[in-house]
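Sample pair:
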Amino acid sequence: MAITKERLPRARVSLEIEVDQERVEKHMDRAVARLSKQVRVPGFRPGKVPRRNLERHVGTAALLQEALEELVPEVYQEALVSEELDAIDQPEFSLKSTEPLVVTAIVPVRPEIDLKDYQSLRAPKPEVNITDEQVADALTAIRRRHAVLEPVDRPVQWDDTVRADVTVAVDGQAEPHVEEDAEFPVREGSVVSLPGFVEKLIGLERGVAHHIEFQLPEDFGAEELAGKTAKYDITIHEVKQEVLPEVDDEFVVSLDEEGVTTVAEMDARIRSDLQTQAERMIIGDYQDEIVDLLVATSSLDYPEVLVDREIDRIIDRESNHASHTQEGLNNWLNAQGTTLEELRESLTERADLTVRRALVIGRLIEAEDVEITDEMIDAEIDSLAGQMGGGAAGANPDSIAAIRGLFDTPDGRASIKNQLITKTALERLVEICSEPEGEGAAAPRASRRRRGGAATEGDTADRPTDESLDESEATTTDAAEAAAEAEAKE
């Protein structure tokens, strides 16, 4: 068997396999033995038809086709072993010639990913600076949760709470909406009922019937109401003034926050919590930015089948698994008002970005030798169980143990391990990219890596080849899911 190999774009390899005639004849004889049992030839018992008679009866082409059904997969598998190819999907076969027999197979193979000098990548990490005003606003929110509402005999002011009978009608609507004895706060920037209503309440007196009219915004979310006139009839029965508690050590102690007993400690805790929340909000966007930077500076060669699989994954997820049956998929597509072809085309760009992100993340995991220990997995399971069990305070130990058991399974641990691997690699990329310009690039990083062989050569390159937020575009989380899900299946 002679084999000619050629590398093609999009991570494909062309194999041209020439099969010697003796081998072809052996498979032709096997084909005769199989067909002679299936085809009725006058004058011959089933299984006893000579080759020349069978060939005249069914035709040479049909006999060759029967032989190829067994021969082609056989020689193809031998060619993969001979050429040391790692195919990730079924090949496309074609018959180049019959004399001699030459079969061509186009094989999608593992992607080739080169991260280049990724350790020199730099992207400024957004800084988070918590202002005194933010701390004061957060403290006010805490005070409001413990505020007292006292009735007052005056017109409505900001931050009051009112109790009123309200009737609202919008031009074009058949019936008005009526609500009796409704109670709600009057805060700047808030929306109660419809945009613009709260602002009209300022200065209104209680015990008097008021009529209010105003136009809704042209860009109002409900198109049938956009630009229409809203008409309110309101009678305010009660106006309550918000009385906030004084901020002193006694108030802080009453909050029963562990480790916080003074106003200064409360201020520091609020500032720290705001800092953590703000950093958590920006880190996702920053990770998207630096992963895309890694994609842009890397060399990627990957087969289109990966994108097709990612499209399948998106459809399955967004249809809530309706794609598991043809009927379910058709019903879902009808509800979306689209065809499968149109949907797949619309998802191609998004899926392609997810695949590219997943591939570079997978290679980064390998390059950084990320290791996740059993102790790290146990700690993550304990954290998840604690969160789902309501936290440490007053948590039921039996409930925590039961929840932990849901995660502490072979499949659960494998899934958590892969999530932690991806999380650690992204944290490492953040560490690299956020270093000041000119620092760190030339220094050896081996001592700063977690070693242990969590990913081996050839293991991470095709992480999204098996099945890989309602998001309108691809995110790093998509890519992490694709890599983690595929790893969990391997």
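The two ends are 33 Å apart (CA to CA).
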